[in-house]
Amino acid sequence: MVPNLQKSLAKSRRFMQCDVFSTTPMGGNGLAVVLDGAELGEDAMQRFARWTNLAETTFIFPPSDPAADYDIRIFTVSRELPFAGHPTLGTAACWLEAGNTPKQAGVIRQNCGVGLVEIDLTGDTPAFVAPPTSITSMAAKSLAAITAGLNLDPTRIMRHAVLDNGPIWHAIEMQGADDLLTLDAGAITPVTGLAVGLIAPHSKGDADFEVRMFSMWAGLTEDPITGSLNAALAHWMQTQGRVQRRHIIAQGTCIRRHGRVHVIPSADDPDRGPIRIGGHTNILIKGHVTL
């Protein structure tokens, strides 16, 4: 686990801002990265994350685990997360851009709230190994509240479950991508305290599935591209024998983003082996911030 550093000392720190899960700059999910978080306290990190007003902001620390290349802490505008996908890939890209080299060629080991997470650098797309996901049944009361709040057609729901890979997701699979693309976010009645992930297959185009994620922790927000949700969905589908080949997830379509998440099963054992979640990162801003 990452240590909780309470002492804060204002100084100039290296900073980058990047865009993750899209080959199109500003088509993915933005991330702020403070490359030197040493001596920053939790309150200071949360204030800065709130100020950036991005989905997440990360802070890099020297590794507390000898197997790790670095520790990170991940903050939304309102709380700290144990793990998140696009911060994992974006932080790795910024760390490399800053001139760092991993201890082992071809792999970065990140230490965060769920422990060590590996980022594979050997493929055509950097990809993290999806952390374990617990899968439980969704309570009928929760399913009914989500169905009503999101105005879903219950006859179009194929599967549903609660997925936990650090964040907790109430996941629902619909029959087709149009079920997601025609959903009016402006007409949603939030189900307070839940994060809802929707997935449905595409019948044409470059993506195999469409995903939308609605966070209802404080009001309602739609996340452009969510690596941790896609990792959890991949593990869920793997338990059903449905991740036999590499596939691509589209996300952010309805909010004018062009997110593409690569789901990469193990070539040796797609039914039980590790799953990697990959995506491209564009680094857009480099500089310093005084914190």
UniProtKB/TrEMBL annotation:
> Which SUPFAM superfamilies does the entry link to?
Diaminopimelate epimerase-like
User: Which residues are named in the active-site annotation?
Assistant: 56
Root EC class? isomerase
- Keywords assigned: Isomerase
What are the annotated GO cellular component locations? cytoplasm
Keyword Isomerase found: yes
| UniProt KW Cell membrane keyword | no
Coiled-coil residue spans: none
Give one GO term, molecular function aspect.
isomerase activity
Q: EC number(s) on record?
A: 5.1.-.-
Q: Which family does it belong to?
A: Belongs to the PhzF family.
Q: Which PANTHER family match?
A: ANTISENSE-ENHANCING SEQUENCE 1 (PTHR13774:SF32), PHENAZINE BIOSYNTHESIS PROTEIN (PTHR13774)
Instruction: Give the protein's recorded name.
Output: Putative isomerase
